[in-house]
Amino acid sequence: MQRTLFTPPKDLQPESLYHTVERGAAVADRARITLEPHTFVTTNTFFGRFPASYWQRWTRIERITVQAEVQGTGRVHLMASDSTGEQRAVSSARVSADTMRTVELAATLDRFVDGGALWLDFAAAAGRLTVADVRWRVGVPGTGGGTRLVICTFNRADDCLETLLAVSADKECLAALDTIYVVDQGDDPLESRTAFAPVRATLGAKLRYLRQPNLGGAGGFARGLHEASADVPESPGVRPPVLLMDDDIVLEPDTVCRLTGFAALTAKPTIVGGQMLQLLHPERLHVSAEYADLAGLRAGRPTPGAVHDADMTTTSQDARVDAEYNGWWSCLIPQQVVAEIGYPLPVFFQWDDIEYGLRARAAGHPTVTLPGAGVWHADFSWKDWDDWPRYFSVRNALIVGALHGNLPGPGTAVRLFTDLCQALTAMRYGLALTLLMAVEDFLKGPSCLADGGVEALATIRKVRAQYPETVRHPAFGAPEVAIVPPEPTPSRPGLVLVKRMTWHLLGRSRGQAAIKAGDDQWWHASLFESVVATDPSQTGVKVRTRDRALLRHLTFRGLRVLWRLVRHGDRLRRSYRAAMPELTGRENWTRLFDLAD
C-alpha cells in the first residue's frame, strides 16, 4: 500500500518530511537508513506515516502489516497516535543480526475512527542499525486494473518531462501504471525536447502522447478520461482507475502507489486525492481538506479542523478531516464514477475539479484527500489573481453555484457588487471589467460553454490588454515613489468601502505610493491617486492610476448587469441544470475535440 522512504525525490525538498533524527546520527538514501550507535530515528513525518484513520473509515481492511529488512542491533517500534496526537506503542521487535533479515509488525485498524496514524521508530543499540525496503501491506486483493495516468500539459514541456522522468525512474510507481496519457495542448510541445525520446523509449507501449489545441485544464483532463475509458472492460472489478495529474508538479512517486492502493480497497467507488505541498516552500502544506463556499463564490476553503498553510516538519495530521473535493494536481477517479456521472464540465479552466467532486458526492461517491499522498505544486499565494483566469473563476463559480446551490440570487449580486467596488477603488479597472464580463457570459446560459471556452479566453485576454494597469513592468523601470505601509485592517469594511467609493467620485486622494505585494489591499490602495504595486509573483510591478470617468462607467454597467442576474436567476439555474447531462456527456466532448482539431 505504501513504502517508508527516507529521502525526497529531489534535493530541494526537506528530508524531515520523511524521517527525523531525534538523537545521534544517521545516513539515509531513498529506501535505506543506517543509524550510528545509540541513535534514535522516527518516521512520524508527513510521508513516513500510514493514515490509519482514513483506512478504517473508508475501507474494509481490518489489519495492516509492515515489513522491513534490518541488520545490526537495536529495536524497531510500531507506533500509533489518536485524533489528538497522543502517542502509544503498538508493537516492537528486537534486532540482532549480522546479515539482513525481515522484521514484520502488525496493527489492527480498530481504534482510529476520529483520527490517528501509524509509523515506525528505530533505535540503535551499541552497534549500527540498518533498515531498508520498508513496506506496508494488506492481506487482501484490491479491485481494478493498473492505474491509467493522465497528465495535462500546456507549454510546460520541461516540467512535464521531469514528471515523466520521475515516473519512469521508480519501478514501483511504473508497475502500478497500466497506461500513461500525456495530453499536450501547447505550441511548445513536449516532443520538441531531445530528452523526450529516451523517456518515450523507456516507457514504451505504456506511453500515449496526444496533441490537441488548447481546451484548458478541463479539456485536457477530459481528453485523458475520454481515451482512458475507451476500452474499459464491462466487468466493474477490472476497470482501471484514472489518475489526473498536473504537469508542473514535483512528484513523490510513491504517491501514485498510495492513491492506487487506497482506492482499490475503498468500500465503494471513491475519488482519492493527493495533498498539495508548496513548491517554493516545500515543507508547507496548502490544506489537508477543502470545500467550496458556493454562496461566497470562493474555492479552496479549509474544511473545519483542517491543517492549512502549515509547516509539516512540525505539524501532524492526526484528526480525520473529510474533504468535499480534491484539486486535480493529483486526483484518482474510479472508472465506475466516470461511467455513472460522466465527464467534466467544458468550462475550460477553474472550478472543473470542484464541480466534479460535488457531482460525484451527490451520486454517492465521496472524495478522500489522503494524508501522506502528496505532490509539490506552485504556491497559490505567489500567483497574480488579477489576471485573465479570474474571468473563469467568477463565471465558473456562478455555473457551479447554479448547478449545486441556490445561485444566483440577491446575495450573489451583493457579493459581486462588493468585489466590483473593491476592484474599482483599488484602481483595478481591468479586473472590474473581467468580473463583469464573467457575469455577462454566465447570463447567456449554457450556450457560453458551446466551444469549451476557447473564444472566451481569446476575448478576455484581448480586452484586458487595453487596460494599462494590467501590464507588468520590470522593477528597475518603475516610478520612484516612496513605499507607504498599510493602515490596520478596517473593523467595518462595508462603511470604509462606501467612503472610498465616494472619495474616488469626488477626487480626494493622498497622492502617490509604492505598495508591497503583501500590503496590496483595496482599503490601502484606495487612499491614493496612483500606486506602484509589486506583483505577487515578485517578477515586476504594476502601475495603477485613478480614472473617475471609468469608475462611473463600470459602476453603472455593473449595476445593470447585476440587476439582470437577480431578475433571471431562477431561469438560469433551471437552464444550466437541464443542460448538464448533455454538457458532460461523451458525445459533447467528442464534438469539442473534433471542433478544436
Question: What does this protein look like?
Answer:
The protein is 33% helix and 27% strand. With 597 residues, it is of the alpha+beta class. The protein folds into 3 domains: 2-137, Galactose-binding domain-like (Jelly Rolls), CATH 2.60.120; 147-382, Spore Coat Polysaccharide Biosynthesis Protein SpsA, Chain A (Alpha-Beta Complex), CATH 3.90.550.60; 405-570, no CATH class. α5 packs across α17 (586-596) and α9 packs parallel to α11. The protein is globular, with a radius of gyration of 26 Å.
* Chain oligomer state: single chain
Main CATH class of the largest domain: Alpha Beta
Please estimate the helix content: 25-40%
How many helices does DSSP assign? 17
Low-confidence stretches: none
- Structure summary, number of beta strands: 23
Any idea what the CATH architecture of the largest domain is? Alpha-Beta Complex
Could you give a short account of the major beta sheet?
Answer: 8 strands, antiparallel
Output the CATH topology of the largest domain: Spore Coat Polysaccharide Biosynthesis Protein SpsA, Chain A
Overall SS class: alpha+beta
Q: Over all CA atoms, what is the radius of gyration? A: 26 Å
Taken from the alpha-carbon principal axes, the silhouette is globular
Classify the beta-strand content into a percent band.
Answer: 25-35%
Terminal residue distance: 41 Å
Mean pLDDT: 94
Any idea how many domains?
Answer: 3
